[in-house]
Amino acid sequence: MKYMMFVCTDAEPDTDSTGSEDIEKWVADNDGRGRRLDGNELGPVSAATTVRVRNGELLVSDGPFAETREVIVGYDILECAHLDEAIEVARAHPMARYGRLELRPFAGQ
């Protein structure tokens, strides 16, 4: 199954610094195992543009629409046998401790 993993900041990161993982190591390991199909860091929130159409009118605004301290900072597309495997992949990601990871299966799988 394919999963989109949103990599997000978190207002309350883990304060235990023991056993910190290196993101390059996580990427290399999961790329090597064929579990990470694609991924990238996103630009800053200040570079975001929100696009909506309401009553036929195009509305474009700078930045994200929602006011929040927790933002999506990257993504990874995972190929895992099942949700439990995707959870284990996410658990090993460094942002699991410093941010949060949201896993979503692609529709129709």
Short description:
The protein has 3 helices and 6 strands. With 109 residues, it is α+β, with helices and mostly antiparallel strands. It has a single domain, classed as Dimeric alpha+beta barrel (Alpha-Beta Plaits, 2-Layer Sandwich).
Which keywords apply here?
two-stranded antiparallel ribbon, globular, 109 residues, Alpha-Beta Plaits, 4-stranded antiparallel β-sheet, alpha+beta, 6 strands, YCII
Structure description:
- It contains 3 helices and 6 strands, in the order E-H-E-E-E-E-H-H-E.
- It has a 4-stranded antiparallel sheet with strand order 2-5-1-6. A two-stranded antiparallel sheet has the order 3-4.
- It has helices at 23-32, 83-91, 95-98, and strands at residues 2-9, 36-41, 49-54, 57-62, 72-79, 99-105.
- It has a single domain (2-105), classed as 2-Layer Sandwich (Alpha-Beta Plaits).
- By secondary structure, it is of the alpha+beta class.
- Residues 39-104 form the YCII-related domain.
- Belongs to the YciI family.
- It holds the Pfam family YCII.
- This is YCII-related domain-containing protein.
